[in-house]
Design goal:
With 338 residues, the protein is mostly helical. The protein folds into 2 domains: 26-56, no CATH class; 94-321, MetI-like fold (Orthogonal Bundle). It has 14 helices and 2 strands, in the order ααββαααααααααααα. The protein has helices spanning 2-13, 32-61, 85-91, 107-141, 147-154, 156-159, 162-172, 178-183, 194-221, 225-233, 238-266, 270-275, 285-293, 297-321; strands at 68-69, 76-77. A two-stranded antiparallel sheet has the order 1-2. It is globular and about 80 Å long.
């Protein structure tokens, strides 16, 4: 009895399933696997309906022509297989020798302009949010009286709905609003040029910097305080502790926070839509998709597919090359001894 238990325990420690009372190894074919499949099936079916079907449907429709009037003949044309023509409308329509030579007003020009604006918002806003979020997290991580009140107040902007935030900043950036009165300027923040872009970046940073602070604070709280005490005893200064202890240990949480915010900003729609309504070349890819739905649904499907591929490519770069650990870590495989 004891030898059997010892063998089972040893094999279980080696990663092998233990022996059942009949002397056979437990497997997924003894009923447990079927029960697990039955329990997981409703979730998988729901995910397939909510996520998989819309993605497959959008990709399928992107290869179909939009039914409507032919601009050359004036005759009604039924939809049919279009190949990659819908994608060419956005990538190469009237672009001549390249994407950067698209005449203004064409679909190709709108796509590349919206792509550049979307990446501009993403790079600048996420960078500012990361720096401010890190500062907020370091402050909230300290022990002082009223820390709980400070943490709650910092999270208020993030808790406000985006539509309310956009309308709030719309009044702040009005021509006779608070921003111009405080700065002593007469800037048209929702007009042309750089002001509308700056207004969107400021509003987005104000709203989502607390989200970054919350995720970074979670990473700071798992750092053992004894590490800092030991570094102080070794004579490490504040900058050395921050550079060689805080940054390396908080890096996993920081990268995941930046990944989440990057993907969220790439899909930005409601804030620029309400704040500027696309004025001053502030239309993002998501805004362009919604506007295109009103004129051609299948062409909009092609644009949404392109947007999905861009977001997927950015996420792949983060996970593959920048070390964003959002998947389970597995122990490295070891070779069996011969």
């Amino acid at each position: 009895m004891s030898s059997t238990s010892g063998v089972a325990t040893g094999e279980f420690a080696q990663g092998k399933p233990p022996l059942n009372p009949s002397g056979k190894r437990a497997s997924l074919h003894d009923g447990s696997g079927r029960r697990a499949a039955v329990l997981i099936a409703p979730t998988l079916i729901l995910l397939a309906i909510v996520i998989l079907y819309p993605v497959v449907s959008a990709v399928s429709q992107s290869f179909t022509k939009d039914a409507g009037l032919d601009p050359t003949t004036g005759m009604f044309v039924e939809g049919g297989f279009a190949g990659v023509s819908n994608y060419k409308l956005w990538l190469l329509q009237d672009c001549g020798s390249g994407a950067f030579s698209c005449p203004p007003g064409t679909l190709g020009s709108q796509f590349w302009t919206a792509t550049g604006v979307t990446f501009l918002f993403t790079v600048v806003a996420v960078s500012l949010e990361t720096v401010l979020g890190f500062v907020f997290a370091l402050v909230m991580h300290r022990n002082f009286k009223g820390r709980a009140i400070l943490r709650a107040s910092v999270l208020v902007p993030w808790a406000i709905p985006t539509a309310v935030t956009a309308k709030l900043w719309y009044f702040i950036f009005a021509y006779d609003g608070i921003a111009n009165k405080v700065l002593g300027t007469n800037i048209l923040w929702t007009g042309e040029g750089w002001p509308p872009k700056a207004a969107i970046i400021i509003a987005d940073t104000w709203k989502t910097a607390p989200f970054m602070a919350l995720l970074i604070l979670a990473g700071l709280q798992v750092i053992d305080g004894s590490v800092y005490e030991a570094s102080k005893m070794d004579g490490a200064g504040a900058w050395q502790r921050f550079r060689y202890i805080t940054l390396p240990l908080v890096r996993p949480a920081l990268i995941v926070a930046v990944l989440f915010r990057t993907l969220d900003t790439l899909r930005m729609y409601d804030l620029p839509k309400i704040l500027t309504n696309g004025a001053g070349d502030t239309s993002t890819l998501s805004m362009l998709v919604v506007d295109q739905v009103r004129t051609g649904f299948n062409a909009a499907s092609a644009l949404s597919t392109l947007t999905f591929l861009i977001v997927f490519a950015v996420a792949f770069v983060f996970i593959k090359f920048l070390g964003a650990n959002v998947t389970e870590q597995r122990a490295p495989k070891t070779k069996k001894a011969v």
